[in-house]
């Protein structure tokens, strides 16, 4: 049996590695959002395909981090803040992986829309992409800095993403009415906006988890 | 006589020990004396009180003197009994007869205090020079109230204190002995360790020109002083060097990050904060905590294994960076990143321009050549067909001429050789004049044209350039607006110094990705369609150059739900007094 100090050191090393893996995964997901947005707006099929390929690394990271968390729970039985951190990591990877999947969906639509050269992506889509990217980055920054105020900011800014989504929805609907030939492509544009809005929701989940980790209180579903 | 190094150390230790023993001894002696005296005082008080109890319960006729003797025997103290006037009535020292002969009334302070407060105390030296402690109490005996005094010499206290002083002196001597032994051992080691330093410092001093003889008498401390001065000088030089390095690092345009073996940031320059959007106080954080860019992490990991590694990638901020990572001596990694966004953009613009210009020129030339060949091959002999070919040749040579003319215009504007003569112009007049020229295109397509211009709106611009700009923008709007669509021209002054003119169309709109490139030379959103419409691909580029040459701004925004808003701003008209001044060289 290892002496106590050695166990503590090993535990700290494991937590530190977990943190690094989580940050690397978050970095990949942020990169995927940025690339997906650019691939869509610039109709860059090559970039879209490269971005889709990145999803494999994100999926792998999700499995690896889950395994590491279970290993830490089994071997060290963490308590209090450390326990919250490990459980948070397990939940965070799920949200990050879902965001990556949504980025893949956007890339697939970018490839589809390339064939329809005339369709114009709604002007608010790049803005939404940039906002969602900032939201995910904000939640991860709050996690890195242990800063609950940053996480609260993410929760507050989600309304802006929702607002943009509704604007895109209304405008696309209007265009469908006036330009029925483009309905098929316009549905793609509408789906992209919906996925970006879902990404925004996942970033708020991340922010709520970060608040739970730092303050130890669960702020999800406050009314229930 | 001068003391050696060990002598000085010993003297210092002796002083320290003497100071410590002296101050501790003084404190302890004072405390012990105070404590012993308090204890003796309490003891004497009890004896006096006990004497009082015996007096209260004595059998009738029992002698006061006998009581005093009994208590004194039992307590080894001196007991005196006085009446309230101070006349002794019993004593353990004197026999009753001697006492009777003693007609002296005592006025000792402790008796006086006891008379007044029932208790008194005093310390006095007797005739033989011994100090005594006296404690007196007032006792209400059955027959008469008396004062009982118990006293004892303070010799015991003095003896205890003397023993304490001897112990302190002995401890001091033992401490000095131990210090002497330890300092001899430590001193030898220190001397041995310093010997090479002293020797080299002395040699260095001897080697200094004109100072060869000095320092031989007591070269140890002198040499150490020299070493200290040298060290100070070296530290100063190192500090200057470090400040210089810091200044260079901070003024570099490239981002520099230095990581230690644990991938923690140990040095970061200002450019790194700017380029990589690092959080505040990034130093001390891990690379991934500071900047979550997987490619950067991969480069750092590869460089940590050795060698220099290079990559080029786009950051989440959209900036493109060229990054090199090299392992440094301390097993950490140095990362240098350079912003190449603008370089890559210009490369793309140049590449596209070369490709586009060759394509644009080749198309009419090919048509002209083909038509000429067809005519030579016999079409000349058929007047009807020949005319068609000649017309096509004429049309394409016109197009070629327009391209060359536009290219020359751009080249002149960019080189500052396009003659601009700005003056105060009425915006409404210029817009009306331009619309008269191009309105027929709108009528043909059934386009509804509306004009909204603030009244009395004047701007400071070159008339010819303004017409050129407006013709290009309005013609484009007509071209891309579908039949029966709507085109609007508006002009207003957003600030007192600027005039903003907008041309709004009902066209298909411009993809966000193309918006920033639409003003590049020969850039086409939809190349086939633009060419079909007879554009040269240079119109918007000319607009941009002409607007910017007159210190204006130009851009395009989307129009909801479809279409575009092309806008430009130019300076508002100047006050009339300036009109006659020399026209500004706006192209400079």
Itemize the secondary structure elements and their pairings.
The complex is a heterodimer of chains A (224) and B (588).
Chain A: H1 4-41, H2 45-76, H3 80-115, H4 124-145, H5 148-178, H6 183-215
Chain B: H1 5-56, H2 64-75, E1 78-83, E2 88-91, H3 96-101, H4 109-117, E3 119-125, E4 131-140, E5 145-153, H5 155-207, H6 219-251, E6 255-259, E7 265-268, H7 270-275, H8 287-290, H9 294-304, E8 308-314, E9 320-327, E10 333-339, H10 341-376, H11 383-415, E11 423-426, H12 427-445, E12 448-453, E13 458-461, H13 463-480, E14 486-495, E15 498-504, H14 512-515, H15 527-532, H16 539-549, E16 553-558, E17 564-571
Parallel strand pairs in B: 12-14
Antiparallel strand pairs in B: 1-2, 1-5, 3-4, 4-5, 6-7, 6-10, 8-9, 9-10, 11-13, 14-15, 15-17, 16-17
Helix pairs in contact in B: 1-2, 1-5, 5-6, 10-11, 11-16, 12-13, 13-16
């Amino acid at each position: 049996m290892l002496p106590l100090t050695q166990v503590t050191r090993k535990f700290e090393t494991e937590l530190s590695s977990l943190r690094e893996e989580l940050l690397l995964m978050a970095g990949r997901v942020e990169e995927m959002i940025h690339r997906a947005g650019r691939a869509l707006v610039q109709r860059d099929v090559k970039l879209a395909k490269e971005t889709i390929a990145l999803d494999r690394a994100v999926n792998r990271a999700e499995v690896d981090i889950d395994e590491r968390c279970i290993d830490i729970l089994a071997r060290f039985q963490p308590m209090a803040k450390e326990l919250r951190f490990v459980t948070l990591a397990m939940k965070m990877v799920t949200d990050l992986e879902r965001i990556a999947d949504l980025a893949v969906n956007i890339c697939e639509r970018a490839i589809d829309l390339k064939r329809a050269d005339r369709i114009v992506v709604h002007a608010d889509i790049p803005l939404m992409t940039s906002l969602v990217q900032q939201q995910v980055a904000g939640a991860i920054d709050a996690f890195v800095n242990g800063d609950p105020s940053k996480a609260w900011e993410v929760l507050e800014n989600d309304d802006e993403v929702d607002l943009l989504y509704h604007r895109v929805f209304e405008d696309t609907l209007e265009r469908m009415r006036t330009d029925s030939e483009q309905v098929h492509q316009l549905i793609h544009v509408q789906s992209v906006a919906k996925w970006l809005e879902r990404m925004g929701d996942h970033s708020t989940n991340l922010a709520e988890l970060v608040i739970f980790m730092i303050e130890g209180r669960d702020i999800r579903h406050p009314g229930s | 006589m001068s003391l050696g190094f060990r002598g000085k150390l010993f003297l210092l230790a002796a002083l320290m020990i003497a100071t410590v023993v002296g101050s501790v001894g003084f404190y302890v002696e004072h405390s012990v004396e105070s404590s012993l005296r308090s204890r003796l005082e309490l003891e004497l008080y009890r004896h006096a009180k006990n004497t009082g109890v015996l007096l209260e319960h004595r059998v009738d006729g029992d002698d006061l003197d006998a009581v005093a003797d009994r208590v004194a025997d039992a307590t080894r103290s001196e007991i005196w009994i006085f009446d309230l006037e101070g006349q002794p009535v019993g004593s353990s020292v004197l026999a009753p007869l001697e006492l009777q002969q003693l007609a002296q009334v005592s006025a000792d302070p402790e008796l006086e205090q006891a008379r007044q407060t029932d208790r008194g105390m005093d310390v006095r030296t007797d005739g033989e020079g011994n100090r005594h402690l006296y404690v007196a109490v007032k006792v209400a005996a059955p027959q008469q109230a008396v004062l009982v005094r118990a006293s004892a010499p303070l010799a015991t206290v003095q003896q205890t204190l003397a023993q304490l002083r001897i112990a302190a002196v002995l401890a001091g001597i033992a401490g000095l002995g131990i210090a002497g032994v330890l300092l001899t051992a430590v001193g030898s080691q220190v001397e041995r360790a310093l010997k090479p330093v002293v020797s080299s410092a002395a040699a260095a001093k001897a080697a200094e020109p004109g100072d060869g003889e000095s320092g031989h008498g007591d070269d140890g401390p002198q040499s150490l002083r020299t070493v200290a001065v040298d060290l100070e000088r070296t530290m100063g030089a190192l500090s200057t060097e470090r400040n210089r390095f810091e200044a260079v690092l901070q003024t570099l345009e490239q981002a520099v990050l230095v990581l230690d073996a644990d991938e923690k940031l140990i040095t970061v320059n200002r450019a790194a904060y700017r380029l990589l959007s690092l959080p505040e106080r990034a130093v001390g954080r891990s690379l991934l905590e500071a900047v979550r860019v997987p490619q950067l992490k991969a480069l750092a990991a590869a460089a940590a294994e050795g060698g220099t590694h290079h990559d080029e990638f786009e950051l989440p901020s959209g900036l493109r960076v060229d990054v090199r990572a090299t392992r440094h001596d301390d097993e950490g990694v140095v990362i240098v990143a350079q912003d190449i966004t603008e370089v890559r953009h210009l490369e793309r613009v140049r590449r596209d321009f070369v490709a586009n210009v060759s394509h644009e020129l080749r198309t009419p030339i090919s048509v002209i050549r083909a038509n000429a060949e067809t005519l030579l091959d016999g079409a000349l002999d058929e007047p009807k067909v020949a005319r068609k070919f000649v017309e096509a040749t004429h049309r394409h040579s016109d197009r070629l001429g327009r391209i060359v003319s536009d290219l020359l215009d751009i080249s002149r504007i960019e080189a500052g050789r396009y003659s601009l003569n700005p003056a105060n112009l009425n915006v409404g007049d210029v817009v009306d004049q331009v619309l008269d020229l191009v309105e027929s295109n709108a009528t043909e397509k059934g386009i509804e044209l509306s004009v909204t211009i603030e009244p009395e709106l004047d701007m400071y611009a070159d008339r010819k350039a303004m017409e050129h700009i407006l013709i290009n923008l309005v013609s484009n709007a007509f071209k891309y607006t579908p039949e029966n669509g709507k085109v609007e021209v508006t002009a207003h002054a957003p600030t007192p110094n600027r005039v903003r003119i907008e041309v709004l169309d009902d066209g298909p709109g411009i993809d966000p990705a193309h918006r920033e490139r639409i003003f590049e030379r020969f850039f086409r959103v939809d190349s086939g369609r633009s060419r079909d419409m007879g554009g040269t691909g240079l119109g918007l580029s000319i607009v941009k150059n002409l607007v910017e040459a007159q210190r204006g701004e130009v851009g395009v925004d989307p129009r909801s739900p479809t279409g575009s808003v092309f806008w430009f701003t130019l300076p508002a008209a100047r006050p009339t007094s300036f009109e006659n001044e020399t026209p500004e060289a706006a192209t400079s």
